[in-house]
Amino acid sequence: MRSWRPSPSPLRQSMVAVVVVMAATAWCAAAQAAQLSQSYYASTCPNVETLVRGAVTQKLQETFNAAPGTLRLFFHDCFVRGCDASVLLSGPDDEHSAGADTTLSPDALDLITRAKAAVDGDAQCANKVSCADILALAARDVVSQTGGPYYQVELGRLDGKVGTRAVVKHSLPGAGFDLDQLNTLFAANGLTQTDMIALSGGHTIGVTHCDKFVRRLYPFKGSRGGAGGAGPPMNLYFLRQMRQTCPLNYSPSAFAMLDAVTPRKFDNGYYQTLQQMKGLLASDQVLFADRRSRATVNYFAANQTAFFDAFVAAMAKLGRVGVKTGSDGEIRRVCTKVN
């Protein structure tokens, strides 16, 4: 006579299913990241880093705008479809024609185009280096050339074959996100709260347009357009300054620096800005306003080395998101279109 055993409850079954899915996802991510290596091009294009760095240096001599723009370009690329340069694809249904990607920097796009030309101009390297890897290297170089840390970049990404505007809106953090929303989105990409706060420090050289924070300046005025809501409180003197930059009838091209302390230097000034209640985006200021994340902000504000170390670690993890392998990817001859 067989003993009776209760059937697994629906809750237990669903929990098991979630665990299985998470395990499978982790295995796939590990398999994808396994192909990345700091010496990936050692034999096929040993000068790749020098070539990309030269293009970055030349572009930054022409315009500082390329620095924050390139860092943002890399972040947007990795979060939307993985680090596969799909953000560079140009077409009516491609990513940079939708949502926040419509404001990606033309200077950053030009920098990647120049870097690709420099790499392919080397006979040994022609058509051997992916646009995704060039973007990852360029992001590192704009950080180091504006005062931030220099770090080794894992290479070996392939370029994606698809870019779809429909996925952009739900893939990127919004200007009005609270801490829970930020953590949820970053966790979906394998990043912790500390990673998220460290990567937010990239705003130390960033800019934002008035429409992303104007509602924080005029919370009771029914301001035109905009995003982000009133959000956490703002330093009153700073608020008055920003109202001059962004009046109610602001120009669509009007913008402000996200780091009011040292806007053209990659340092920990961004966190000091948040301590002073001078964060423009609600999603930035909430990192200090929320007690769950405030200690990390204070730590990075007081210890630049700690911020740099955390930023480097987070960039490595970010660079492994959605890496394409095998037939899922290619090495594009032109970064703006598939082969």
Automatic annotation (TrEMBL):
Enzyme class: oxidoreductase
Name of protein: Peroxidase
Protein family membership: Belongs to the peroxidase family. Classical plant (class III) peroxidase subfamily.
Cofactor mode of binding and number, as noted: Binds 2 calcium ions per subunit. Binds 1 heme b (iron(II)-protoporphyrin IX) group per subunit.
Localization (cell): Secreted
Chief site of localization: secreted
Signal peptide: 1-33
PANTHER family: PEROXIDASE, PTHR31517
Span of domain Plant heme peroxidase family profile: 35-339
Residues annotated for Ca(2+) 2 binding in this entry: T204, D259, T262, D267
GO biological process: hydrogen peroxide catabolic process; response to oxidative stress
Cofactor requirements of the protein: Ca(2+); heme b
Role this protein plays: Removal of H(2)O(2), oxidation of toxic reductants, biosynthesis and degradation of lignin, suberization, auxin catabolism, response to environmental stresses such as wounding, pathogen attack and oxidative stress.
Transmembrane in keyword set: no
Binding sites annotated in the UniProt record for heme b: H203
